[in-house]
Amino acid sequence: MTFLASWTSLTIAQSTIGLYIGTSKSDLHTESIWYQHQMSETFHLGIQLTYGQAQYRFIQAKSVTEGSVITAGMPMGWRLISKETYRLDVNLRPSLRWFNAGAEYDPSSSLALELDPSISAGLRLNEHLLFHTGVMLRTVFELSPGPVLSEQLPSSILLNALSFQKHSSLISLRTYYGPMSGAGGDTEKFFWQVSIGIQRQLGASDDSAIPFFTF
Predict the structure, then answer these.
(1) Distance between the two ends of the chain, CA-based, in angstroms?
(2) Residue 83's Cα: distance from chain center in Å?
(3) What is the pTM of this model?
(4) Predicted confidence (pLDDT) per residue in 51-92, tens digit
(5) What b/e string do you get for 44-69 counting C-beta neighbours within 10 Å, with b at 16 or more?
């Protein structure tokens, strides 16, 4: 009973919900909501749903300038180091992405697999400010209408964020930027994204600890 009570307290305290809105080279606007749960002392697993309005994407390596994008993923993270002033995580976000460009395009839709492994560090600047930085290997494989297994080859995207922490909540400004390659060089050459979001831990939390953070 003591073990069960301790486990319940731990998992509730380390469950996190969040949302963000942003814009990027690929999408005019994007909105995302996610839930993350601590499955063990070092492992997090969650679900994430994202919607975007496309402005520069690709189907079969052909550029598309409109359409809607829906992505469903399972972000997961492994905490490598956690100290009072810094934290280091390895992350993976396997996702399925559905892109509907409209009847004027042929083909008009696509389904793709995204992986996006990354490593990120969180640094405490003072009582309320945190700085997050890392690198993501942006990787996308288009599955249909026909396989394009090099839609976006592993490309190093730099991740940076500045967060304000108050009690169980974190308000963050995120930036993503870096070169892109794939599909014989026909995809975008440079990617950027800016977003603002909020995340909140459910249950009791330690205000002095650096919380799990998802890009």
Answers:
(1) 37
(2) 23
(3) 0.86
(4) 999 998 888 878 889 999 999 999 999 999 999 999 999 999
(5) bebebebebebbbbbbbeeebeebeb
Nearest Cα residue to 53 out of 42, 45, 65: 65
Give the integer Cα–Cα distance in Å for 180 and 103.
Answer: 28
Per-residue pLDDT, 57: 87
pLDDT score of 4: 34
Measured between alpha carbons, how far is 98 from 141 in angstroms, rounded to an integer?
Answer: 12
Asked if residues 36 and 59 have their Cβ atoms less than 8 Å apart, the reply is no
Q: How long a stretch of residues is the chain?
A: 215
Token look-up 């991740």 returns: 159
Indicate the burial class of 162 (C-beta count within 10 angstroms; 0-12, 13-18, 19 or more).
middle
Give the three-state DSSP class for 141.
Answer: strand
For tokens 């994430």, name the residue: 48
How far apart are alpha carbons 168 and 43 in whole angstroms?
20
Residue 40 is given by DSSP the state S
